[in-house]
Structures are given as C-alpha cells and as structure tokens.
From TrEMBL:
Coiled-coil annotated residue ranges, if any: 529-556
PANTHER family: CYTOPLASMIC DYNEIN 1 INTERMEDIATE CHAIN-RELATED, DYNEIN INTERMEDIATE CHAIN
Entry superkingdom: Eukaryota
Region listing for Disordered, in residue ranges: 28-57
Protein name in UniProt: WD_REPEATS_REGION domain-containing protein
Record PROSITE patterns: WD_REPEATS_2
Taxonomic placement: Eukaryota, Metazoa, Ecdysozoa, Nematoda, Chromadorea
Example of a GO cellular component annotation carried by this entry: cytoplasm
Organism this protein belongs to: Parelaphostrongylus tenuis
WD repeats: 387-434
Length: 580
C-alpha cells in the first residue's frame, strides 16, 4: 500500500540555490559578582577589615614586651592562612629575625644663657636719676603710690594734672615733624621760593613760585611747580614757566585748574593745567599804565563762586582788580596813597575772612595800612588808617583765619625786618602785643586756619617758630632750625591745619606734620584766647597810663633838670630792637 502511494505521487524536481552566508560575532558578556565587605563577629574582638591585604610592612609592626615586635592587629580574609597567632609564632622560629627600628635619641635643647645686663657706672646712675624723664616718672609714681595707700574708696588714683585734655604732655619736638622735602634738580634747585598757595578744591596740591636760577641764566627766569603732598613721588605734578621773574603765586579759588603768578615786570601770568603740554602762560596782563608796571608781590582771589575777582598790588602803590577769565584789562584800579600823598610801596597784602572790600597791606616804610577797594570819593582820595610800630620794612602780614564762637577777624599779624612780630586790631588801631623772640629779620607770618591762638613765623637765620598764645605769649611753644645754609622765605598752612609748608632760598619746599593738639580744638580754646586778648589790652592800658604819668612827671621836672633821668626811666621797657 505504501509503495503504491509512493509510486503514485508525482516526482519532485529540485534545483540548487545560491545561499549567502554571514558570520555574526557573538558578544561576550562580562559577568562578575559585586560584593560588599561587611563586618562580622571579629569586630567585637578588636579586629578590623583590611580588604585583600594579607601581609603588613615592617612599619606596621608593634613592639612587644621583653623585646621583639609583633604585627599590627588586622582582620584577614577567611581563606587567608595567616592568623593572629602567626605574630606570636614567628619570633620563636630559629633563624627568623625581625627588623627593629633604631630609635634616634632626642636632641637636647640647649637653653640660652641668661642675658646679664651690664652694671651701670656711678656716673651713668647719676645721669639717669638727674634726667627730666626719670624725675617726671618718679614723682608721678610716688604720687600714685601715696594715693593708693591713703585712699580707701574706689577713686582714680592715676589722674595726672600735668597732662592736657588730649592725653600726654606734648613735647616741643613733637609739635612739628618734618614729613617730606620737595625739590626738583632741574626746575627748583638754587631758586628762591617767592610764593606758596594751596588749592581749595584739591587740598593735596600746592603751587610754588620760584625766582631765577643765577647759576644757569639760560633757564626760564620764572618757574611755578605744582607739588602733590598726598602721593609719594619726587617729581612735580605740573611744571610751568615764563620769561619773567616771579614774585607771588595764587590758585584760583573757584577755578582749580587756573594758576596765576605776579611778575617782577608788573605782568600777571596765567596757566591752565587742562591744556596738555602747555608750560607757558595762556594769558598775560598788559604792560600799561592802567595795570602794573612794578613788581607784583601779592595776589589773592576773593569773593564768592558767582562773583569773585583777582586782586593784585605792586610796589608803586597800585591796586588792580581782575576778572579771572580775562587779563587784558583790569576791572578796577586804584592808587594807594599815604596821608602825605605819597605812593605806598606795598610788599604784602591780606584780606579778612569773608570780606571783599577791606584789607591791610605792609609797606617798605615800616607801616601797615588798613585800606578799602571801593572808596567814597575821588580815585586818589584815601580814607585809611596806618599802624605805626615797626622800624623796618613789613615783610609779612596775615589776618586771623579761624572761625568759631568768638569773632576774631579784626586781628592781624605783621612781621618785619626789625626782628619782631606784632599783633594788631582794626577795631582800636592799637598795638596789642609785640613778639620779640627772633634774632634776625622775620620774613613771613601766618595764622593757623583752625586754631584761634596758633601761628607760625620764619626768619633769616632759618628758624621756624610755632606759637600758641593760649600756652605762652612770651615765646614759641616749638622752634626748629631748618635752613642751615640759607634763610626761609615763605610759609603757608594747609586748610585743615594739619600740615605746614615752608620754602627757603635754595629751592626747597619742606612739609611739616603738625601735632593734633594744634588742630583738634577743645571747647575752651576760644574763651581762653579771649581772656588772653583781654589781658593784653589791660596791660596796654596800664602801660599807657604809666606813660602819661611819666610824661607829666617829665614836664614837671623839666625845669629842675630831671628830664633826662625821667626819659631814661621811660625807656627802660623798650627793647633794643625798637630803637634799631
């Protein structure tokens, strides 16, 4: 049956077909088991896991009692043949030696030998005991100990009545400390300082005018340098020059970029620091009869921000008012004449604080004059007051500048070649006091801008004097000789009263730091100075009464031949400088 079926089926026709083979590489899958080491019962026995570490280095061996070392305690893998007993077995095996660390002995620190102070000689002991500092310390310490023994209550036993309100008593050498010296080898060396002016808008800047350098006549005769007192640089901020010798300098109060200087020729030069690389003047006043034709020794900018002028005076008695923006012609001019109708040879000038009209000048004839810019009558008619007290030219003059509860703007100082500094008042036109501590010509004087009783003066011997009339009216509280080879010419205070600039005839500008007691005021400084002025006035009145009595006595004894004796008595209190 099966054969029938197979024979009855149709035959199959098979063909060969092309088969494409392609080999696909198998991807090996990396298999691994991730395990985490966990703590077991050995933790409680003081063991800890070290992972796969089976052996330790020699550094991990611990010393044993009786010598030798044993390994540190570690936990090992379960399959590790090393156990904790191995450390105890190894030392007993023959031929097995442990490496022992050699203990270095600690370095013994040598203690330095105690320093023994050398014994003082008897002369040194006497010198120390007799010194002022030791006596002051000893006396003060003795007072403190006595107070501690005598006082039972809780009181301040350390109070020192010799100290001022600011702390320790200020020594004379500490009141003025030299801070810096400004000098340029090319532009200022061997040139005399003729003017110093601080900038109000930029208080750290100071303008200084210099005279000609006689050693190098090819250099410009007049030079103005702008120094910076804030930054520690040796060169000036700006350098200006002109072809005329300079006698004075001023910085425009409301135009900080404008610098003006008075020339010996009578011209006024102006520079602008905004003009790059411009060292020569941008404006000059004309040489004409309407302006100055003689040396201009004084310049000052007065007024307010909206109405201000530049005022200048010359040695021919000519005063001119200028518009700061225009120097082609003065706004106003006036001849300063004395009561005899002569021209006043002005050498210096000063305006009171916040006053545009009234001012004072010092002249070559030894007088100081109180004048006004705007007269009431004809141009040559002068209504003024002169102050007679100096016997030589008045070189410096300065109004009181400090403002406070007491109005002292009527006071002014004058310095003269008769070696004196005098205090005046425009109210009574009388001499208040004469300061006679200088031994040579006093070239300049200046009030402190903040302290009512402080001023400075300089002389031809190179001495700088610092005065505080609340402490002493007979002599300065500090003095210093700062010009060994020449003499001092000009001084100027910084607006805050903390610095003082002094110029000499060698081209040096020295900057001094003033002690804080000279500019940090106590409340009683003004009242103390008012009492000092009252005492001066009373002493002058008593002196005038005594002079009248002596005069009447001289008139009464004139017929008896005693006039010469009385005259000699009247001149007992007159200083030799007054007769110079």
């Amino acid at each position: 049956m099966a054969s029938q079926i197979l024979s009855g089926s149709r035959s199959l026709q098979l063909d060969f077909s092309n088969v494409q083979t392609m080999a696909v590489p198998t991807k090996d899958a990396a298999q691994y088991s991730k395990t985490t080491q966990t703590d077991d019962d050995r933790i409680s026995m003081g063991e800890f896991s070290t992972g796969s570490q089976e052996f330790d280095y020699d550094d991990d061996m611990l010393p044993m009692e009786g010598g030798g070392f044993r390994g540190r305690i570690h936990s090992h893998d379960v399959d590790s043949p090393i156990t904790d007993d191995l450390a105890g077995i190894l030392p007993n095996i023959p031929g097995f030696n442990f490496v022992k660390h050699k203990e270095e002995p600690e370095a013994v620190k040598e203690e330095p030998a105690p320093v023994r102070m050398p014994d003082l000689s008897e002369e040194e002991k006497v010198q120390i005991i007799s010194s002022q500092r030791f006596q002051t310390f000893f006396n003060y310490s003795a007072k403190v100990i006595e107070r501690a023994l005598a006082e039972a209550e809780n009181v301040d036993i350390f109070v020192d009545y010799a100290r001022d309100g600011h702390g320790e008593t200020v020594a004379s050498s500490d009141r003025m400390v030299l801070s810096r010296v400004f000098c340029d080898p090319k532009w200022s060396q061997n040139r005399a300082v003729t003017g110093i002016a601080f900038s109000e808008q930029n208080p750290e800047l100071v303008a200084v005018s210099y005279d000609s350098n006689k050693d190098i006549p090819s250099e410009p005769p007049g030079v103005v340098l702008i120094w910076n007192t804030k930054f520690k640089r040796n060169s000036p901020e700006y350098v200006f020059h002109c072809q005329s010798r300079l006698a004075s300098v001023a910085v425009a109060r409301f135009h900080s970029h404008l610098i003006m200087a008075g020339c010996y020729s009578g011209q006024i030069c102006m520079w602008d620091n905004r003009v790059a690389n411009k060292k020569t003047p941008i404006h000059k006043s004309p040489l004409s009869t309407s302006a100055h034709t003689h040396p201009v020794y004084a310049l000052e900018v007065i007024g307010s921000h909206n109405a201000h002028n530049l005022v200048s005076i010359s040695t021919d008695g000519k005063m001119c008012s200028w518009n700061v923006d225009n120097l082609t012609q003065p706004v106003d001019g006036k001849e300063l004449l004395s009561r005899q109708g002569k021209q006043i040879p002005c050498l210096c000038m000063s305006f009171p604080v916040a006053d545009m009209n009234n001012f004072v000048v010092g002249s070559e004839d030894g007088h100081a004059y109180a004048l006004s810019r705007h007269g009431t009558g004809q141009p040559n008619a002068q209504e003024h007051t002169f102050f007679d007290g100096h016997s030589a030219p008045v070189c410096g003059i300065a109004f009181h500048r400090a403002t406070g509860p007491v109005d002292l703007s009527h006071l002014f100082l004058t310095s003269s070649s008769d070696w004196t500094v005098k205090l005046w008042s425009t109210k009574d036109h009388k001499l208040r006091f004469s300061f006679e501590s200088h031994n040579d010509c006093v070239f300049d004087v200046a009030w402190s801008p903040v302290h009512p009783a402080v001023f400075t003066s300089i002389d031809a011997e190179g001495n700088l004097f610092l005065w505080n009339l609340n402490e002493d009216i007979e002599g300065p509280v500090a003095r210093m000789n700062i010009a060994q080879e020449g003499f001092l010419r000009k001084i100027a205070w910084a607006e805050n009263g903390q610095h003082l600039c002094v110029g000499d005839d060698q081209g040096n500008l020295q900057l001094f730091d003033i002690h804080e007691s000279m500019y940090v005021l106590r409340s009683e400084e003004w009242t103390r100075f008012a009492r000092v002025l009252a005492d001066m006035k009373q002493a002058n009145e008593e002196a005038d009464e005594m002079s009248e009595v002596m005069s009447r006595l001289s008139d009464g004894l004139g017929g008896l031949g005693g006039g010469s004796t009385v005259a000699s008595l009247a001149g007992v209190n007159v200083s030799p400088r007054q007769n110079w």
